[in-house]
Design brief:
By secondary structure, this protein is mainly alpha-helical. It has a domain of 171 residues. It is 67% helix and 0% strand. It contains 7 helices and no strands. α2 packs antiparallel against α3 and α4 runs antiparallel to α5. 20% of the residues are buried.
């Protein structure tokens, strides 16, 4: 690779990282503020809430890396499965570079890209999952519910887009085999992931909170008796004149 291409590749990676940061940081900040406000209303605040939020954020990004890598691998394996012949070397791949492997070259570029994403996401996901086991995440699951729910919503959104795109493609007069393979490969990965996250979210839902019992309204006599002090009774006893008992 010549120096100019290396600079362009580095700038492209930096642009992607900045774009992800601009989108992810406000979302994470809002989630953290919501968790902090909810935690402040409890009698015993969670001292490890910030650390758990950071660990869950990295763990969620790792899970998404694994899902993207599996999508690239599935689309590459479905290459030519619907059309009867592999796509042309220059055909666009919506999830990565087109497979350009020749005989004796080993796995193609798409498989290598998928392997890198899966291995990286798996390593970071397992590492930060192990870090979460050292906290009170199992006892206080509010942070876990937020991030599992976020991943569940993202998986369902991807499934919605993939199903819509597949239906639009099928309704065309001449459906594009490459687009159908990409959409089917996406559904094969993200639909089971959505089901798993829905089960995880249901398993981590806590018991419903009991509403606080409002004190019953007091009448005037009860309010006066509650406000009456023992000293007042002593003063009344001293001021009351002595009367002899009637002889009967």
């Amino acid at each position: 690779m010549n120096p100019f291409a290396a600079v362009v590749a580095g700038l492209a990676v930096l642009f992607v990282v900045l774009a992800l940061a601009v989108f992810a940081i406000p979302v994470l900040a809002l989630a953290y503020v919501a968790l902090r406000v909810q935690d402040a209303a409890r009698e015993e605040p969670d001292p490890r809430l910030g650390m758990k939020a950071a660990f869950h954020a990295v763990h969620s990004f790792s899970v998404l890396l694994v899902l993207v890598g599996l999508s690239i691998l599935t689309v590459d394996l479905l290459n030519g499965a619907l059309g009867g012949r592999p796509n042309a070397p220059g055909a666009p791949n919506p999830f990565g570079p087109p497979p350009a492997a020749r005989a004796g070259d080993g796995p193609g570029a798409a498989k290598r890209t998928a392997a890198g994403l899966i291995v990286s996401g798996g390593l970071f996901g397992l590492t930060f999952w192990a870090c979460l086991t050292r906290t009170n995440d199992a006892a206080r699951r509010s942070v876990r519910r937020v991030f599992v729910g976020g991943r569940m919503a993202l998986c369902l959104l991807v499934v919605l887009i993939a199903v819509t795109g597949l239906l639009v493609t099928l309704f065309q007069k001449t459906p594009d085999d490459g687009a159908m393979e990409a959409l089917v490969g996406t559904l094969l990965v993200w639909l089971p992931a959505a089901g798993v996250h829905m089960a995880l979210f249901a398993a981590n839902m806590g018991a419903p909170r009991r509403p606080r019992r409002r004190p019953e309204p007091e009448d005037d006599e009860d309010r006066d008796d509650r406000r009456r002090r023992p000293e007042d009774d002593d003063e009344d006893r001293e001021e009351r004149p002595w009367r002899p008992a009637d002889d009967r």
